[in-house]
Design a protein that fits this description.
By secondary structure, this protein is mostly helical. Helix content is 62%, strand content 0%. The relative contact order is 0.15.
Length: 101
Amino acid sequence: MLNIFRSIPTHMDYKGQKLAEQIFQGIILVSAIIGFICGYITEQFGWTVYIVMAGFALSCLLTLPPWPMYRRNPLKWLPVQESGTEEKKQADRKPKRHAKS
């Protein structure tokens, strides 16, 4: 059963995070405006709260799970280097000469 959960991707790239944030803010803003207008017309503050809460729930549903649209630009990682190569490279380098002033 744990293999099922391990197969679900849990990462999101940086551009996907930016897109998710923009979608989240847009839905919250639109729902707040619609909620305010509906609440003002009906003179019921409860409608405003319900509409904003529905917008919040919708935005959470769209932005919290790592949907494939948020994983389109994966990071390109550097290849793994052996630990001994760093010591060899430093030993092969010539010492730096400082300019005399």
